[in-house]
Amino acid sequence: MNFKRILITIMATILPLAAGATTLIIPASGTGPGSNGSQWQTELTLHNTSASTITATLTFHDTTGAGGTATVDVAPRATVSIADVVASRFGRTTTATGAIDVTFDSAFAQKLTVSSRTFNKSSSGEFGQDIPAVDATNVPDAGSIVVLSGPSSTADARFNFGLYAVSASTVQWQLVRADGTIAATTELGYAAGAQVQYNSGVLSLLHVDARDNDTVQAIVTSGRALAYGSILNNASGDPTYVPGVLALADLRINFAGVDFGDNGKISVPDANHDGVLDHAIDVQTGTWPIAFRVVVNSTTPATFELLNAPSELRFFDAHGGLTWSPNALSAGTTLNLKIRVTADGVTEIITIPVNIR
User: Fold this and answer.
1) How far apart are CA 88 and CA 97, in angstroms?
2) For residues 257 and 93, which has the higher predicted lDDT (pLDDT)?
3) How many CB atoms lie within 10 A of CB 165?
4) Which pTM was predicted?
5) Mean pLDDT score of the chain
């Protein structure tokens, strides 16, 4: 298999979309009764700015993965609103929560807008939240830290959160108290296409009591996953959507950089300690393999695992030494290598940007 085919295989695994298709993701939608007498439904709205009819395929994803499909035609410059879409288009007659993929021809990218509103319908009126669509190409991948901010008053509101796994993923959930203390951590795997929501998630997932100004960090350790949250007022049932915010954190390991001479000198550093080399390394194609070493300083031996590497790239020892002989057909391509490193009792994911010449 040549290198271009390998890259295509990697991308197909990371983001399984049809060729020439654009996918927008509503990470959370639902129908049916919820806590405290609430009654939920999602309204999906599509608007076409083009002069042609656009046909979109809707796919519902629950905890089991794909849970039904439907199609919708949006006439030129028209708007289509689908009431209680989870029930009306996917046949869910009882309580259901999941993500919705909206897939259409990429020729209409930027010409079809997708929005949603999930609301509690009660005798007092409707209380709802907009849940924006996210382009599937922008879903966080391995090494991403997604921050979800909880309510300022746990007496007044509860905090639900969850994720949609675009590909098979592993996510470390971490609860950070207002004073910076890490109160709980758990790591879970998710099948490709699965959507999972944890209601009152601090207690139900992390098994500790919620406190004011809790923050949940969803750290993607493999795959691609879109995390989100929702704060719900206990008295009214009014929800507020909490988008996942991408952030960087100082590494808990000492990743020095990359050594090309294997002589103990750093060729390209990670000077700002964010887990990403300060600039891309240049790798030449050719007959002979190149070698370099990932340098992590630790009091105990570090372990290394490649997360998204082509088959020609492999470790030649257990101490971060890598050998690579990229195919000449890969010249001109780029790749962000993701490596899981465990050292001194903690695990982090580092990124090595590569330009293949």
Assistant:
1) 14
2) 257
3) 26
4) 0.78
5) 89
